[in-house]
Amino acid sequence: MPKNLESKICIVCNIPFNWRKKWEKNWAEVKYCSERCRRNKKGRRQI
Questions:
Q1: How confident is the model at residue 1, as a pLDDT?
Q2: How far apart are CA 33 and CA 13, in angstroms?
Q3: 9 - beta bridge partners?
Q4: Potential cystine with 10: which of 2, 4, 31, 33 (Cβ 3.0-4.6 Å)?
Q5: pLDDT digits (tens, 9 = 90+) for 1-47
């Protein structure tokens, strides 16, 4: 398993999340860390 996996910051909860195999084909379009954040995208948290 590679140790240098890419990571992004979720635009809803501002928590970092790592690359996953299921996102292999569309990693560039991934914005949310989970289905829960995707459903609650209107409630973005400000830090």
A1: 43
A2: 8
A3: 16
A4: 33
A5: 455 679 999 999 999 999 999 999 999 999 999 999 999 987 566 65
